[in-house]
Amino acid sequence: MAAQQITLQERPSGASVDEQIRLIAAGGAGDTCSSDLADAPWSFDQVPGYGPGSSMGDVIPAGAPRQGELPVRYRTASDEELTERIVAAKQTLGDRVVILGHFYQRDEVVQHADYVGDSFQLAQAAKAHPEAEAIVFCGVHFMAETADLLSGPTQKVILPNLAAGCSMADMADIDQVEDCWEQLADVLGDLDTPDEDGLLPVIPVTYMNSSAAIKGFVGRHGGIVCTSSNARTVLDWAFQRGRRVLFFPDQHLGRNTAKAMGVSLDQMPMWNPNRPLGGSSAEEIAEGRVILWHGFCSVHRRFTVDQIDKARAEHPGVRVIVHPESPMAVVDAADESGSTDVIRRAIEGATEPTTFAIGTEINLVQRLAAQNPQHEIFCLDPVVCPCSTMYRIHPGYLAWVLEGLVDGTVQNQIEVPDAVADPARVALERMLEAKPS
Ligand code: SF4
């Protein structure tokens, strides 16, 4: 199967992020947030925490999945050998397997993907291949769960490394969200009964970057899922049905979207799950329009207004585009903001040679730079600091799960239980049906 065009068609010619980090660790020019990134991810499978990279300072939940030991033949294989093994296994499996690669994956993995895209594009790609027995999702845990929700009942979704979670998704735990809901009911009354205008007191909206359990919660409570591409449409949908929105897990996407819709900042109380009433007063909750969960992406939180100022000073005429998971001040200071797909299309659509400073994950930025040599493209953050959990997927694990399939063994299957899957699909279907107003 040739790589599909949501997507990349060939491996870029420039140095990959992995190669660049190895050069930095060996004393070359540049800087990285952790020289441990030069080590293979299996070095960290027995170590608690998210591992090196942007989430290394985040607290991982106690029950977060851990990856077992990768067999030694994959840990000791050379890069070339792993490539040969993956190519051979893919050839043997043919249409029985589809490999999905997220934009933020290392090039060494992306080169084997049948589809490359953002989380939702990849979930749709999974849905488009009912003939495949297995879907190998080179991304993070919530993405594999979403693929399982949307794929056929007999298809197996595989996450090559179980430690590839997402620190942002982990910031909204189902127990915390249930507790928040109860506290909101104490302030706002019965949350399931509409008022005289037919509006519910609060509509829960979860970003795609959340666990299936959270999507299920949202589905059970009249809520909806959003992506970074459709957050505004989804908030419109929610405001047609409720007085206010509880938005999780990413405060920045919620704030940036609501602000662009004209919601004032004092109508966006914060909900910190570790504090009574989320740290807000009952009045602030009652008067709020969008209650923001205290979550964030540690990749996109690295971007700053100072970086934008520096880019403009050093590159007059630079076009600054950032992802809406970035802090509000950064989005406000940028020329544009949008999802990974918006960023990709903006670059590919520029008809004149242009300098772009991009605020999103480094693997995607460097790949876009290699694919678009007519432009100068660089990451706003000068420190090479990839997503810790995307980094956990490596060709060694990909070779392991593919050769397992060749031998008839399904490893690292991600399965969402029906009790969660049914309401989670309802929330996803609402999103698919929501139309821009
Ligand atoms: S880039 Fe951010 S939101 Fe995406 S997987 Fe990494 S931590 Fe999670």
TrEMBL record:
<dbReference type="InterPro" id="IPR036094">
    <property type="entry name" value="NadA_sf"/>
</dbReference>
<dbReference type="InterPro" id="IPR023515">
    <property type="entry name" value="Quinolinate_synth_A_type3"/>
</dbReference>
<dbReference type="Pfam" id="PF02445">
    <property type="entry name" value="NadA"/>
</dbReference>
<feature type="binding site">
    <location>
        <begin position="323"/>
        <end position="325"/>
    </location>
    <ligand>
        <name>iminosuccinate</name>
    </ligand>
</feature>
<feature type="binding site">
    <location>
        <position position="166"/>
    </location>
    <ligand>
        <name>[4Fe-4S] cluster</name>
    </ligand>
</feature>
<feature type="binding site">
    <location>
        <position position="387"/>
    </location>
    <ligand>
        <name>[4Fe-4S] cluster</name>
    </ligand>
</feature>
<keyword id="KW-0004">4Fe-4S</keyword>
<feature type="binding site">
    <location>
        <position position="340"/>
    </location>
    <ligand>
        <name>iminosuccinate</name>
    </ligand>
</feature>
<keyword id="KW-0808">Transferase</keyword>
<keyword id="KW-0662">Pyridine nucleotide biosynthesis</keyword>
<feature type="binding site">
    <location>
        <position position="102"/>
    </location>
    <ligand>
        <name>iminosuccinate</name>
    </ligand>
</feature>
<feature type="binding site">
    <location>
        <begin position="207"/>
        <end position="209"/>
    </location>
    <ligand>
        <name>iminosuccinate</name>
    </ligand>
</feature>
<dbReference type="InterPro" id="IPR003473">
    <property type="entry name" value="NadA"/>
</dbReference>
<keyword id="KW-0408">Iron</keyword>
<feature type="binding site">
    <location>
        <position position="119"/>
    </location>
    <ligand>
        <name>iminosuccinate</name>
    </ligand>
</feature>
<dbReference type="GO" id="GO:0016740">
    <property type="term" value="F:transferase activity"/>
</dbReference>
<protein>
    <recommendedName>
        <fullName>Quinolinate synthase</fullName>
        <ecNumber>2.5.1.72</ecNumber>
    </recommendedName>
</protein>
<keyword id="KW-0479">Metal-binding</keyword>
<comment type="function">
    <text>Catalyzes the condensation of iminoaspartate with dihydroxyacetone phosphate to form quinolinate.</text>
</comment>
<feature type="binding site">
    <location>
        <position position="297"/>
    </location>
    <ligand>
        <name>[4Fe-4S] cluster</name>
    </ligand>
</feature>
<keyword id="KW-0963">Cytoplasm</keyword>
<comment type="pathway">
    <text>Cofactor biosynthesis; NAD(+) biosynthesis; quinolinate from iminoaspartate: step 1/1.</text>
</comment>
<keyword id="KW-0411">Iron-sulfur</keyword>
<feature type="binding site">
    <location>
        <position position="228"/>
    </location>
    <ligand>
        <name>iminosuccinate</name>
    </ligand>
</feature>
<comment type="similarity">
    <text>Belongs to the quinolinate synthase family. Type 3 subfamily.</text>
</comment>
